[in-house]
Amino acid sequence: MNLNLQEKVVVITGGTLGIGKACVDAFLLEGSRVVICARTQSKLDEFTAQYKGRPALAFKADVANPDDMLQLAENAATAFGGIDVWVNNAGMYPRGKLEDMPLEEWRRTFNVNVDGVLYGSRAAIPYMRRRGKGVIINAASFASHIPTAGRGAYGITKAAVQHMTRVLGAELAPDNIRVVSYLPGFVITDLTAHVTDSEKDLIETQLAQHRSGMPEEIAPIVLFLASDLASFITGCGIEASGGRYCVQNPDMPWGKKAASHPFNAVEEDT
């Protein structure tokens, strides 16, 4: 299917790892031109070496710094002539109970996960207005629906992102700028690398598919949202969680399947 993303200029924050990097690869396959940012110079250097000779540029920037986002937008527009799609992907996933989480970490989580989305969006809007259209895509999360105790700050910030998506979707509609989000469930990335095996096993029992997601399964959703195939979608998001809590007992069918397996079946004595 042709998504008509050739020559589109796409900015992806946090594009060196995980879902962000999977999106970079997917957009490049569609013929887009990509600009990413990260805070760590070594990651930027690795990215630049890996994508040498391809229309992909990397700049050092902190999404929590509004001036950095303005500069990133200017760099993208200068290099490729404008901005068509902006993906607010960068985020952090801290651990800590709300009562004793260090306030500095609480504030940083909001700075990155919420302020960073606003700063990136505001940086992109003028360039999209010049194009006469554009798409802003925000990384929300299944945690915006059901947060996790012990990681409450993350879910709270992602709920804010969902509300921001709705508000911006309405406010920017007259400019033909769509604002949408993607809501991953548990996906194997560097962001979730510190989740223990026991936590991962528990999470997977809460999913109808009984498995974790991969970044390559989220990237196509981002591409679809960026394309004109999604032209009537704005102010909302698409969930990709493997059916997490689509019912209250998603583990039950797996238990029944195991019980009915030939090796586990009980033969009735006739």
Return the string of H and E elements.
EHEHEHEHEHEHHEH
Q: Unreliable segments (pLDDT under 50, ≥5 consecutive)?
A: 262-270
How many DSSP E strands? 7
- Helical content class: 40-55%
Largest sheet: 7 strands, parallel
Radius of gyration, rounded? 20 Å
What's a concise summary of this model?
With 270 residues, this protein is of the alpha/beta class.
Please provide a written account of the structure:
The protein has a seven-stranded parallel β-sheet with strand order 3-2-1-4-5-6-7, sandwiched between helices. Helix 1 packs across helix 7 (215-226), helix 3 (66-80) packs parallel to helix 4 (103-131) and helix 4 runs parallel beside helix 5 (152-171). The protein is globular, with a radius of gyration of 20 Å. The chain is α/β, with parallel strands linked by helices. The N and C termini lie far apart (57 Å). Strand 2, helix 2 and strand 3 (56-60) form a beta-alpha-beta unit. Helices cover 43% and strands 14% of the residues.
Mind sketching the topology for me?
Layout lengths: L8 E5 L4 H12 L3 E6 L2 H10 L5 E5 L5 H15 L4 E4 L14 H29 L2 E6 L12 H20 L5 E8 L12 H9 L9 H12 L9 E5 L11 H9 L10
Parallel strand pairs: 1-2, 1-4, 2-3, 4-5, 5-6, 6-7
Helix pairs in contact: 1-7, 3-4, 4-5
